[in-house]
Design a protein that fits this description.
Shape: globular
CATH class: Alpha Beta
Oligomer: single chain
CATH topology: Endonuclease, Chain A
CATH architecture: 3-Layer(aba) Sandwich
Strand order of the largest sheet: 1-2-3-4
Number of domains: 1
Largest sheet: 4 strands, mixed
Structural class: alpha+beta
Distance between the termini: 51 Å
Number of strands: 4
CATH superfamily: VSR Endonuclease
Strand content: 5-15%
């Protein structure tokens, strides 16, 4: 049983950002400081990557651990309420991420995905990977 009213739950879910999240901003600031110019949340690229280098065909996704199923086989055991909703939802997200990767790769894109915790703890290393990929393409 949900501890929140439907109105409270709705308000909470509306507050979940799908763009300009903390992890996206952290990574974008590092890339910008390096002089790397990108587009953000490009809607005409399949999967709507968070950061895109159009000319280099590099798509970057900043994935939060909960929504994208980090360590999913272990983590799904932690979901105690509304399992019938959350488990299929997150598994659909995982499947969609795989489909997005496959399609972009088939279209000639380089796809980079970073977990939120890695962006927060290893921003420099994440940006290094992106910069190296861009310079090689």
């Amino acid at each position: 049983m949900d501890k929140l009213t439907p109105e409270q739950r709705h308000k909470n879910m509306q507050a979940v950002k799908n763009k300009d999240s903390e992890i996206e901003i952290i990574l974008r600031k590092e890339l910008w400081n390096r002089g790397l110019r990108y587009r953000k949340n490009v809607s005409n690229v399949f999967g709507h990557p968070d950061i895109v280098f159009i000319g280099k065909k590099v798509a970057v996704f900043c994935d939060s651990e909960f929504w994208h199923g980090y360590n999913w086989e272990e983590r799904k055991k932690d979901i105690k309420s509304h399992q019938e909703f959350w488990i299929p939802k997150i598994e659909r997200n995982i499947k969609r991420d795989i489909e997005v990767n496959e399609r972009l790769i088939a279209e000639g894109w380089m796809v980079l995905r970073f977990w939120g915790k890695d962006i927060k703890e290893k921003t420099i290393q994440c940006a290094d990977i992106i910069e190296k990929t861009i310079r090689q393409n």
